[in-house]
Write a structure and sequence with these properties.
Elements: E1 4-7, E2 11-16, E3 19-24, E4 30-33, H1 35-42, E5 48-49, H2 50-54, H3 60-72, E6 76-78, H4 83-101, E7 108-114, H5 141-154, E8 159-165, H6 173-188, E9 194-201, H7 208-216, E10 219-224, H8 229-235, H9 245-257, E11 261-266, H10 276-285, E12 291-294, E13 299-300, E14 303-304, H11 308-324, E15 328-330, H12 332-342, E16 352-353, E17 356-361, E18 366-368, E19 381-382, H13 391-396, H14 412-415, H15 420-429, H16 436-450
Parallel strand pairs: 7-8, 7-17, 8-9, 9-10, 10-11, 11-12, 12-15
Antiparallel strand pairs: 1-5, 1-6, 2-3, 3-4, 13-14, 16-17, 17-18, 18-19
Helix pairs in contact: 5-6, 10-11, 11-16, 12-16
């Protein structure tokens, strides 16, 4: 140590009128300070000793106490500290700890089950839109049973979760019934303690029989809807381009009649991004649904299809809509506020369910560590010889900060850099000139720093 200190490379300054905030991007600590403290920090833009810094201050006692606290909190560091090397060493240690905990302290306890790729809709942003009907696959009962047995084996006498997905999962309602019956038998035998069920549906195939079943078995029913008729029907269409709005509403009315637990899923796209908050307000005020989830844009061809800054703007508006209407709107921005409030780095948080992990059971009976894609063959696991080591852990616990610029970003420990799916897509299609995910965090983090501050 040379007794000289400088501002940590992780510290970022934010200003709002006469108020100032100092973010430590590594620890996610935020200090709200006045101009006097901000100016003290600025004294350490270049390495300087405390004694020299104090010569520039009139109230040396207060200044020294402030400097001591800034050092303690990691805002000022010894100028000999190699913070980047330390970060990489700490990250390697943390990844090693997490990999060793797989199968012990943490488990795979949740599966997103893709029952079928078939669907009566042909939504413009859907991954199966361009597939021919003859190539669309259904999951077999044998594979579904093996998937359930895998969760039971990994979580004996504990709780598990199954999320039924598609395509449109109600196309194979028979498999849902069969799975629930089988799981109930396993609960009676004492093999597992409980199960949480969820289903993502477009609502078009809902009838009284299905709605009653979903209610009786305590399903959380997520229904995809993008807003009012004209907005929804821009993307959510049948193969003949006919809109789907009236069919979705019919299904929602049946689900409401049977008192199902309903959430609405909204998918942002290039055609609706400027009206995303208005769509949520419509769903809350006009349709009377108080729980909405906005899907995170997916890395099509290696980048989000929606503008990151526009997405940020709309999500900020959504907070106001939710507050004014006593509703809940979950979205990608929620992650930022949670991380800051809890001072909890999120750089290694790929598809977790509680303290454990979720994965996808693909229609061809393979386990994908990714919950939104199962078309990356090198990461898939066969059900018969599933293992945490290798493909699964390499995906779930991939090194964060994939790009050099990630470790110079204030959102480094909220975003963590591109996920494995994004990197996989970039490998196929090349890196975009501008990352929309980066644009999102740059804008949304500035707002989040001041959220809730009077």
């Amino acid at each position: 140590m040379n007794n000289q200190y400088q501002i940590s490379r992780w510290v970022f300054f934010y200003a709002q009128k006469n108020n100032f905030a100092l973010l430590n991007a590594k620890s996610l600590e935020v200090l709200y300070v006045d101009a006097e403290v901000k100016n003290i920090v600025r004294l350490f833009k270049k390495p300087i000793s405390i004694e020299v810094a104090l010569k520039k201050e009139t109230n040396k006692t207060v200044a020294k106490k402030t400097i001591t606290q800034l050092i303690k909190l990691g805002y000022l560091v010894d100028s000999d500290t190699d913070e980047l090397t330390d970060l990489y060493k700490e990250t390697t240690r943390e990844l090693d700890i997490r990999k060793k905990s797989l199968g012990k302290d943490t488990q795979l306890n949740s599966l997103r089950v893709v029952l079928t790729e078939k669907c009566p809709f042909r939504c413009q942003y859907c991954f199966v839109k361009n597939k021919k009907d003859i190539s669309l696959t259904d999951l077999s009962w044998e594979s579904l049973k093996k998937g359930i047995d895998l969760l039971i084996k990994l979580n004996p006498k504990k709780g598990i979760e199954l999320q039924f997905f598609g395509g449109e999962p109600l196309v194979r309602f028979d498999l849902i019934q069969q799975a629930v019956e089988y799981i109930e038998e396993q609960i009676i035998k004492g093999k597992i303690k409980q199960v949480h069920y969820g289903i993502t549906t477009n609502g078009a195939l809902v009838d009284d029989k299905k709605a009653k079943f979903l209610k009786e078995k305590s399903f959380l029913v997520s229904v995809s809807l993008d807003g009012w008729k004209e907005l929804n029907d821009l993307n959510r269409q049948f193969a003949n381009k006919e809109g789907t709005f009236s069919h979705i509403l019919r299904g929602l009315e049946i689900l409401k009649k049977h008192h199902n637990d309903i959430g609405i899923l909204v998918t942002p796209s290039k055609t609706n991004i400027d009206q995303l908050a208005d769509a949520c307000e419509y769903i809350i005020k006009d349709l009377k649904f108080k729980f909405i989830t906005i899907n995170t844009p997916q890395p099509v061809n290696g980048n989000w299809e929606v503008d990151g800054k526009k997405f940020s703007l709309q999500l900020k508006k959504c907070f106001k809509v939710a507050e004014e209407n006593n509703a809940v709107i979950n979205h990608f921005g929620t992650r930022t506020l949670f991380a800051l409030n809890e001072k909890l780095p999120m750089a290694m948080s790929c598809s977790k369910f509680g303290n454990d992990y979720t994965a996808t059971l693909s229609p061809d009976g393979k386990v994908s560590p990714c919950i939104v894609s199962w078309e990356h063959p090198e990461s898939l696991n066969k059900l018969d010889n599933f293992s945490y080591s290798g493909n699964f852990s390499n995906w779930k616990l991939a090194n964060p900060y994939a790009f050099k610029k990630c470790v110079s970003c204030p959102a480094m420990n909220i975003c963590g850099g591109p996920c494995p799916l994004e990197l996989f897509e970039m490998k196929k299609h090349g890196q975009p000139s501008e990352h929309e995910r980066c644009k999102f965090f740059e804008d949304f983090l500035k707002w989040s720093i001041w959220y809730g501050q009077s």
